[in-house]
Amino acid sequence: MSAARIKVLVVDDSALMRKLIPSILARDPDIEVVGTAMDGAFALKKIEELHPDVVTLDLEMPRMDGMETLRLIMKRAPMPVVLFSTHSKEGAYATLKALALGAIEFVAKPQDAAAGHLDSIAGELIEKIKVAKRAAGRKLPAAVVSDDPPHEKKKERAALPPSRIIAIGISTGGPNALQYVLSQVPGDFPACIVIVQHMPEGFTEMFAKRLDECCALDVHEARSGDLLVAGRVLICPGNRHIMVRRMPRGDIAVLSDGSPVNGHRPSADVLFHAVAQQFGLTAVGLLMTGMGEDGAEGLGAIKDAGGMTIAQSEDTCVVSGMPRAAISKGYANKVVPLDGLAQFLVQNYGTDRSGSEKFDKPDKNDKNEKPERTPVSSHRT
User: Fold this and answer.
1) N or C terminus: fewer CB in 10 A for the chain?
2) Catalytic one among 85, 163, 171, 267?
3) Which CATH superfamily is domain 6-134 in?
4) So what's the pLDDT on residue 182?
5) Best CA proximity match to 349, nearest among 111, 167, 200
């Protein structure tokens, strides 16, 4: 007997969207649209009546908007919510705030959505609804949701060469997980962190600004030629790849418009392979929550080069596909729960070069070695 179909409630103030979204979801036999709602007030009533598995939610609606609707859903009866957000700077900010409130995933509405053109995102929406259903019941990390500016001005620091290059690959569940981890890392952290977060073009600039507001580290959307310096975090722009390169004047980030890898641009594999090639023994790769297998082979390349490889533990991921792929292939030296990642990074890489060799290097040729698991602390997110 086949598994039960995923029951979806579509919430959107546009009558056209309430017609088109169910029609594209009907293409998949595993999904059943059980109802639609024109605003948050109707949505909350329909949730009580229909008990959907997943809600697709527009953020811009009259009477009760998507943000307030999401707050009440998470308060009354938490369930997987996939945002269907306007593709703009304002829409990006609202989307990131909604993810912090507990939404699982988001799909950016195409620019011509009002004209009824949704075919370009049909597959993505269907896939993310399925991911949201699988993620049901997973606890998201606590995230600070605030409209206030940062309360403390960051101290100016010299642009010093980093002790390490830490490359992070992350996807579904990433915005909250990264905020949770990076907010615990001190501003004098001597390593440089380069991040590939699967996110559309136009969203990563706002995402970097949001992280910068909640972290002591300096967080920026990366540009080609940016120096890799201690205490800096570079977020790869949406729809670009990011690599690293050693140069006489200093190590730099390099962006490219190469073809998608593993279906993604940016791709964690592209970053990880570049870090392995350029930094070898001093490279650190970290693969976190996300669907698919992007980053697994790149993590293996870092391990082969003698660098350190880390995977977030599956039980603390919103979606565990990416780290699971690396762990199953023997590419992860360490498996660390989400609530232990910041402490692990600070303890192992929070000193200068002379004190950074704190881990026992495994045989780089032994890909089948079992990863060491760092125990989960008593505090759970």
Assistant:
1) N
2) 171
3) Response regulator (3.40.50.2300)
4) 95
5) 167
Please indicate whether residue 352 or residue 232 has the higher confidence score (pLDDT): 232
Nearest to 334 by CA among 166, 182, 183, 189: 166
Task: Indicate if 171 belongs to the active site.
Answer: yes
Per-residue pLDDT tens for 30-53?
A: 999 999 999 999 999 999 999 999
pTM: 0.86
Concerning whether 267 is annotated as a catalytic residue, the answer is no
Decide yes or no: CATH 3.40.50.720 for domain 165-373. Answer: no
Same fold, 6-134 and 165-373: yes
pLDDT tens figures, 259-299: 999 999 999 999 999 999 999 999 999 999 999 999 999 99
Q: Which listed residue (39, 53, 58, 198) is catalytic? A: 198
Question: How far apart are the C-alpha atoms of 296 and 298, rounded to whole Å?
Answer: 5
CB 314 within 8 A of CB 280: no
Q: Give the pLDDT confidence of 93-110 residue by residue, as tens digits.
A: 888 889 988 899 999 887
**Catalytic residue selected from 12, 226, 251, 294:** 294
In sequence order, what DSSP letters do the residues of 38-70 get, joined into one string?
A: SSHHHHHHHHHHH--SEEEE-S--SSS-HHHHH
Per-residue pLDDT at 13: 92
Q: Is residue 198 within 8 Å of residue 171, measured between CB atoms?
A: yes
Please report which helix (H) or strand (E) contains residue 241, including its range.
Answer: strand 241-245
Q: What is the pLDDT of residue 359?
A: 39
- At CA 343, angle to CA 318 and CA 227, rounded to 5? 90
pLDDT tens, residue by residue, 138-189:
665 555 455 554 445 677 777 899 999 999 999 999 999 999 999 999 999 9
What is the β-pairing status of strands 283-287 and 308-312?
parallel
The domain limits of the chain are 6-134, 165-373
- C-alpha neighbours within 13 Å on the C-beta side of residue 100: 18
Radius of gyration of the chain (CA): 21
Could you tell me how far CA 248 lies from the centroid of its own chain?
33
Q: For residues 229 and 166, what is the distance between their CA atoms, to the nearest angstrom? A: 11
Active site includes 148? no
Contact assessment for residue 94 and residue 61, using Cβ atoms and an 8 Å cutoff: no
